[in-house]
Write a structure and sequence with these properties.
The protein is an alpha+beta fold. Helix 1 packs across helix 3 and helix 5 runs antiparallel to helix 6. The strands form three sheets. Strands 2, 3, 4, 5, 10, 11 and 14 form a seven-stranded antiparallel β-sheet that branches. Strands 1-13-12-6-7 form a five-stranded antiparallel β-sheet. Strands 8-9 form a two-stranded antiparallel sheet. The protein is built from seven helices and 14 strands.
């Protein structure tokens, strides 16, 4: 139901895959994400690794931020009773207020409302929307300067607040595909490559989890390839820096399909590793 008690015409079917940069020494990595299909909302976050210089595990901040987003969706009175359309900026703001850990993180939340996608983005995580085999929208990178993305945090004066977030509204229809991810995906795979993989694998009948896995695997393979031509390498050239090949990073990918409503919905999943 939407905020007026009407049946929603569309819903999301979303699945994910996550590859931490240091699989053995730091299996949790610095990324975090959640999928809440009941509330038609997904989110990704990337703890900013620069905090490690001060002995801070940025992954803990990202995980707590996403955990708090997820819990706010499930426990907020209006959302719990399906009386209100989810406002992703409000969700992020409320989660930020109760995330009292050292560290910082980028974040991107996407919610499917009856009239389209509502997107809030801070930093260089993000999402794109595909229709008829082509990307029709992508969140722009939000950064103070090259490789210094906007990032949410409370310990220090150099961090940003949810008030700095970019907000977008994107009309969607059944059959559209959303790919959300951290910069480990978008720094390593050009948009054209993401388009190609999604189109080929959808044609072969692969589901959202399988496509998310293939995208993250390809991004990981590219990240360790010193000969690859990558978006991060090209961006480095534009500011006079030298970087060859891929960019080693944690990689989170969520693939979501916009489909007609009327089928069973799961409550959602907060993705954490033991």
């Amino acid at each position: 139901m939407d905020g007026n008690g009407k049946e929603r015409p569309l819903k999301l079917i979303a699945k994910s895959n996550y590859i931490p940069k240091k699989r053995d020494s730091k299996p949790l990595g610095d990324d975090a994400h959640f999928i809440c299909e009941e509330k038609h909302t997904i989110g990704v976050a990337d703890g900013v690794g620069g905090c490690a210089k001060n002995g801070i595990d940025a992954g803990e901040y990202a995980r707590e931020l996403m955990r708090n987003c997820f819990m706010f969706l499930l426990t907020h009175e209006n959302y719990n009773n399906n009386e209100e359309i989810v406002d992703p900026k409000l969700v992020l703001t409320q989660a930020f207020k109760v995330t009292n850990l050292a560290g910082s993180s980028t974040a991107c939340l996407i919610t499917l409302a009856p009239d389209g996608l509502n997107i809030v983005n801070v930093g260089d995580s993000g999402c794109l929307v595909m229709r008829n085999r082509r990307v029709i929208f992508k969140t722009p990178i939000q950064q103070h300067y090259f490789n210094r993305p906007y990032q949410l945090g409370i310990t220090g004066t150099n961090f940003d607040k949810p008030t700095s977030a970019q907000v977008f509204k994107v009309a969607v229809k059944a059959g559209d595909i959303i790919v959300a991810g951290t910069d480990g995906l978008f720094d390593n795979l050009p948009i054209e490559v993401i388009e190609f993989i999604v189109n080929v694998k959808k044609e072969k009948g692969l589901d959202e989890h399988e496509i998310a896995t293939i995208l993250s695997d390809r991004a990981y393979e590219t990240s360790i390839n010193t000969l690859a031509i990558t978006p991060f390498m090209e961006a480095s050239k534009k500011v006079g820096r030298i970087h060859y090949g891929g960019k080693k990073d944690d990689i989170t990918v969520i693939v979501a399909s916009v489909v007609p409503s009327g089928e069973w919905l799961a409550v959602g999943t907060l993705y954490e590793r033991d």
